[in-house]
């Protein structure tokens, strides 16, 4: 085991897959000589050269379209968005090309493409750099969507995403890059369609992902000292949702809280509620509670920004209120 930062885990995954498969390449702004805006590709340009670590102009629609074309011809491009918000400029390419071409070609083309980069609410990055785009992409047919949350799952999931023959949107939270964790020295991969049972419990099921996993863990540490026993599931796969793991937990606890950084209106939590109601409605002892971000552009002001997202004390209060139903 080696203690490693999350951005180093992503770099290791990229490096290992590039060394293993000459078809893997990286495309994006400042990914080469500069080493990426958050240093995920640091040192790779010197190792692999201009043709496999491609610095691009500031033209997301163009280089994303180029990457999709490269994937159609058998390469395995990794597109880095300097900030995932910028990839809204390539929404047409992602939705009408990446998501559709395998289907509209009758299976004649595969699209082994990874689109990855930082997103989420940072620390005073402003509205345009603090967007939560998971729900934007969730509605696009043909995509897989993954949100990493630890160095361990970041490395294993990115390696699996690079090897997958379908387009994968890979979300990294801007505030988790410096998170440290011991990860195995030997090679490993993780499934792209499975949630992680972070903590077993019997009182209530907490569903979360990305940075909010860590807010939930802080809340659970407080709750455990007061004899509450929550079960925590990190969704990881946002499309498809691992409804089997989710329903298995609900059948045990019968209560659900969703903690997300996504907006409440039409967010990931909204889709979760729909699928839980379809698959496990009779197991619920109370309506599902959503703790979501405010439906506003993220303010630049630090105090206002903090007020838009969910914090551990809010989770503690919500769990206590819901578990009291059982008493």
TrEMBL record:
Domain Transketolase-like pyrimidine-binding: start-end pairs: 4-179
Known function: The pyruvate dehydrogenase complex catalyzes the overall conversion of pyruvate to acetyl-CoA and CO(2). It contains multiple copies of three enzymatic components: pyruvate dehydrogenase (E1), dihydrolipoamide acetyltransferase (E2) and lipoamide dehydrogenase (E3).
A GO term, aspect molecular function: metal ion binding
Gene: odpB
Assembly behavior: Heterodimer of an alpha and a beta chain.
Cofactor(s) of this protein: thiamine diphosphate
Record protein name field: Pyruvate dehydrogenase E1 component subunit beta
InterPro entries (UniProt xref): THDP-binding (IPR029061), Transketo_C/PFOR_II (IPR009014), Transketolase-like_Pyr-bd (IPR005475), Transketolase_C (IPR033248)
Pfam families noted in UniProt: Transket_pyr, Transketolase_C
Catalytic activity, as annotated: N(6)-[(R)-lipoyl]-L-lysyl-[protein] + pyruvate + H(+) = N(6)-[(R)-S(8)-acetyldihydrolipoyl]-L-lysyl-[protein] + CO2
Keyword entries, A-Z: Chloroplast, Metal-binding, Oxidoreductase, Plastid, Potassium, Pyruvate, Thiamine pyrophosphate
